[in-house]
Design goal:
This protein is of the alpha/beta class. The protein folds into two domains: 129 residues, Ribosomal Protein L4, Chain: A; 52 residues, no CATH class. 31% of the residues lie in helices and 14% in strands. The chain has six helices and six strands; from the N terminus they run ββααβαβαβαβα. A six-stranded mixed beta sheet has the order 2-1-3-6-4-5. The protein is elongated, with a radius of gyration of 27 Å.
Length: 211
Amino acid sequence: MSYTYTILDMKGKKIGDQTMSKDLFSEEVINEGLIHEYVVMYLSNQRQSTAHTKNRSEVRRSGRKLYRQKGTGNARVGDAGSPIRRKWWVVFGPRKYRNWTKDMNTKMKKKALRSALSLKAKTETIFWADKFTLEEVKTKLMVDALKNMNLAEKKLLVVLPETNPILGKSLRNIEGVTYTTSAQLNPYQLMSHRNVLFTNDSFAKIEDRLS
């Protein structure tokens, strides 16, 4: 099954129809398990090993036994640097040397992206714009364009064909709207946004990337 969508301009007028390639995007290629695997990998690779506790060799401590073993009525106690005492070394605490990175081969990444795009298409949360053109940075014009396409006040991912400082600065202050490029688009971005807006040029580059 292939998916066909209406292409709108910035004023909300219909320009034509867009059909996703059946060979690349269809219900048959959806693999939710692979999408989940990619999302786990992506989030794991964002982790930074900054949490760090000191072990026994990294603290300065007295080796003196605090009081005698028996006869005080207290529990037995060791030296002043014992890990059961406050502000001393930690047993099995987090260390900054742990490596959280995961990997996935290129073929699986492409399949995950195809699956995510097909899943968004199946749920009818992909939209098309003819193109975005602005001569100056103007957030109000982008807000008006999204309103014309009935995409205002929705959590939206806008996919641009390439980095564009004018469009980027016009989009970045709109609440709930994130933008990326065709080369940077990944399954995590698709699944973390309710709606996705492509331009003709940006989706053509996605098809070239996956073909």
